[in-house]
Design brief:
alpha+beta, D-Maltodextrin-Binding Protein, domain 2, 2 domains, 6-stranded mixed sheet, 3-stranded antiparallel sheet, 17 helices, 13 strands
Length: 427
């Protein structure tokens, strides 16, 4: 999710130990370290930091209700397949964390239950519920929200006459040119070629919508998407950004601290990582700002997470109680303190805890979500689009060839959807 920078010397186990003074005995029990396969326990699966730290929230639920919870943290790269396999085998957990883009797919195959109470879908930011709704019915509760913002080095930008990060594409290019002249052996921007976030964000800022014909065909050759891809590719072509994937830089946060680049689009959990490593980069040397657009900030996509309940749980009442607990404003604020994830509930944002000026760009962007397709194929589409974009950056395709390839790949992905729409079987 969002901020994926981390210290390779720090394991998730050690980070859990640091959070809230270490795991309590109750929390250890919920992980199954002291009690495994308890027939009285609810089961919960999560990914990333949320999965790692879920024992803390589960312990509070157990204390309040007496219901034990066994949690499991899944690797993000294997989670989708794990959930699908578990559904096929009838072994899904009672409650699960799903990236919001997965919810419609799992609702379509009958894996997750619809919300039993419409109130669970209220108190959220505009647009957050759209991807959680299938056939007009919400199937998950928002848990965390987080668009990209630009993290920037105040001192490096100050060297070239900027007191804050520029909010336009022309400003980014100006910073890139000036920093490159001043530090020829460094870069201005870090954008990983195997992460789709930044290109999709640029497209949203340009007002581009990627599909046409009732979301049955690609529309990447439209002028706005071409503008976004051309700008994205130019940053690499002109040497302002290195053409690297995430596995080619062991510790991007350390590189940011050492000044190898000044602008770093990332998500909210990077805030926590930066605060933890203040000895490497002092807080007064960096800041956050909204992502730049052609004429200033516009609509952006986000990486949001949600909580769903298995359609086959034998204990739906208790499972929904756990889901309510995990997604309460109090629990979301607890996670914000511990891992930096941002609450999906608007009511949580009235807390003084979220008054930090560094969070304002996130809040501002969440009020202007990009309009994106709400179809089960979208997760696969954006990955395919990024694969093509990487080929363009590396010189294997021209921009126009890349846009044509995106349309061709996406049309192939949507072939079955076109048939179903034409037959009137789906809207």
């Amino acid at each position: 999710m969002g901020g994926r920078a981390h210290d390779p010397r720090t394991t998730r186990r050690s980070l859990i130990a640091m959070g809230a003074g270490g795991l309590t005995a109750a929390a250890l029990a919920t992980t199954g370290c002291l009690r495994r396969h308890d027939p009285a326990a609810l089961t919960f699966w999560g990914t990333g930091y949320e999965g790692d730290y879920s024992p803390h929230l589960a312990a509070a639920f157990t204390t309040a209700t007496g219901i034990p919870v066994e949690t499991q943290s899944l690797p993000g790269t294997a989670a989708h397949e794990k959930f699908l396999t578990a559904h096929a085998g009838g072994s899904l957990p009672d409650v699960m964390m799903l990236p919001s883009g997965w919810v419609a797919e799992f609702a379509m195959i009958g894996a997750v239950a619809p919300l039993p109470d419409p109130a669970l879908a209220t108190d959220t930011f505009h647009g957050v519920m759209r991807p959680l709704t299938f056939a007009g019915v919400p199937h998950a509760i928002p848990w965390s929200v987080g668009s990209q913002v630009q993290f920037y080095r105040r001192d490096l930008l100050g060297e070239v006459g900027y007191d804050a990060a520029p909010l336009t594409w022309d400003g980014w290019r100006d910073v890139g040119a000036k920093l490159k002249r001043r530090h020829p052996d460094r870069f201005a921007i870090l954008m990983f070629l195997n992460w789709w976030d930044t290109l999709i964000t640029f497209a949203g800022q340009a007002g581009a919508y990627p599909l046409r014909d009732r979301d049955t065909r690609g529309d990447f050759r439209n002028p706005r998407y071409r503008e976004a891809l051309a700008f994205y590719v130019s940053l690499f072509a002109d040497g302002y950004a290195p053409g690297v994937s995430s596995n080619e830089i062991q510790d991007p946060l350390a590189a940011f601290a050492q000044g190898y680049f000044a602008l770093y689009p990332s998500g909210p959990t990077l805030l926590t990582d930066l605060h933890r490593r203040a000895a490497e980069i002092a807080p007064d040397r960096w800041g956050t700002a909204r992502m730049p657009g052609p004429n200033g900030p516009g609509r952006v996509s986000a990486i949001n997470n949600s909580i769903a309940v298995s359609a086959t749980t034998p204990r739906p009442r208790e499972a929904w109680a756990l889901a309510r607990h995990l997604t309460s404003a109090a629990s979301e604020l607890t996670f914000q303190r511990m891992i930096g994830s941002l609450p999906a509930r608007r009511s949580a944002w009235t807390s003084p805890q979220l008054a930090d000026p560094l969070l304002r760009p996130f809040a501002a962007q969440m009020e202007l979500p990009a309009e994106l397709p709400i179809i089960v194929e979208w997760e696969r589409i954006r990955l395919e689009v990024q694969i093509v974009a990487e080929r363009v950056v590396r010189g294997g395709l021209t921009i126009d060839e890349g846009l044509a390839a995106m349309d061709a790949r996406v049309d192939a992905i949507l072939a079955r959807r076109r048939e179903l729409v034409a037959a009137g079987r789906i809207a």
